[in-house]
Amino acid sequence: MSAETLVVNGDVKRLVEELNFAKKVERSLRLIRETYEQYGNRLVVANSLGKDSHVVWDLAKRVSPEIRGFIVTTRFKPSETKRFMRAEVARYPELRVFSHDEPIPDRLYATDPDRCCDVLKVQPTRRAIEEMGVDCWVTGLRCTEGRTRTDYREIEERDEGLVKLNPILIWHEREVWQYLALRQIPVNALYAEGYRSLGCAPCSRVSAGGDERAGRWIGTSKCGGECGIHTRPLRTSGELVHG
Ligand code: SF4
After folding, report:
1. Tens of pLDDT, residues 122-132
2. CA 111/CA 117 separation, integer angstroms
3. How far apart are CA 161 and CA 168, in angstroms?
4. Is the model's pTM score more than 0.85?
5. Is residue 231 part of a domain?
6. Interval between CA 191 and ligand 1 midpoint (Å)
7. How many helices (H) and strands (E) in the chain?
8. Given this model, what pLDDT does residue 206 score?
9. Alpha-carbon distance 55 to 177, whole Å?
10. Contact, 207 vs 214, CB < 8 A?
């Protein structure tokens, strides 16, 4: 990674406002390209089927059509998302799908959403990273999305030996839609209903206001929060995480 990247990496908030859209696209492509040169096939995109992931997926495909990805899905994803996922996987067979299909307690999302996310999202993500031999995973995380997303870097190593690249960290929501429109990239039909952040059906609502993630986990302690894939260890065993 170049020295310039490392220096500005520390000043994310300034870059959010100072770089224009074209410069951000250029920067994101450069981040993916340089990281891909370093990691090759061990670089994999995590595709959540949301708008941000689709920008990252398209940027990655511009860098190299060979770049692989994975989708973590759950039994609670809305039918629109499942339909959209099937279409995307048919279009890009290099997208692998991971899920947890064993029985879990009824309504675990209501009684213990942290545990539910851990079982249905974090564990399959951990499995994807292991089975696909990932040393660098690429995400669509953005620092302006909500209160839980302000403390990230474009390149980080929260798990030892597992680099995380957040190539659109400094993009505004508007710029995400700008990119999708300019590149004519299809999106999940739920966005037409007013959703701004997509998740599982019981835990996602249409929301308004400044916080994009305000519609997630409404009425629980996780409101506007995280499923855990960005906050929990991904290299450790399931037993440790559940302890
Ligand atoms: S988003 Fe809700 S339903 Fe989906 S895994 Fe998390 S708690 Fe469970």
Report:
1. 999 999 999 99
2. 12
3. 22
4. yes
5. no
6. 19
7. 10, 6
8. 87
9. 9
10. yes
Is residue 214, in this structure, part of any structural domain at all? no
Q: What is the CATH number of the domain that holds 93?
A: 3.40.50.620
Q: Is residue 36 part of a domain?
A: yes
Give a yes or no: residue 226 inside a domain: no
> Which is the closest atom of ligand 1 to the Cα of 204?
1
Cβ contacts of 26 within 8 Å, gap of 6 or more: none
Q: Which of 75, 76, 101 to mutate to test the pocket of ligand 1 (most atoms within 8 A of CB)?
A: 76
CA atoms of 142 and 195, how far apart (whole Å): 17
> What residues form DSSP beta bridges with 162?
159
Phi-psi group of 73: left, alpha or beta (phi > 0 → left; psi -120 to 50 → alpha; rest → beta): beta
- Please give the tally of structural domains in the chain: 1
227 is an active site residue: yes
- How many Å is the maximal CA-CA distance in the chain? 51
Q: Which domain holds residue 180?
A: 3-189
Q: Name, in order, each residue with C-beta under 8 angstroms of 156's C-beta and a sequence gap of 6 or more.
A: 163, 164, 166
Q: How far apart are CA 100 and CA 207, in angstroms?
A: 28
**Angle 34-130-92 from CA coordinates, rounded to 5°:** 65
* Closest atom of ligand 1 relative to the 114 alpha carbon: 7
Q: Which residues of the chain have pLDDT under 50?
A: 1-9, 237-243
- How many C-beta atoms surround the C-beta of residue 140 within 10 A? 24
- The secondary element (H helix, E strand) that includes residue 163 is strand 162-165
- Spacing, Cα 113 to ligand 1 middle (Å): 6
Best mutation site among 49, 75, 213, 227 for ligand 1, i.e. most ligand atoms within 8 A of its Cβ?
227
C-alpha span between 162 and 181 (Å, rounded): 33
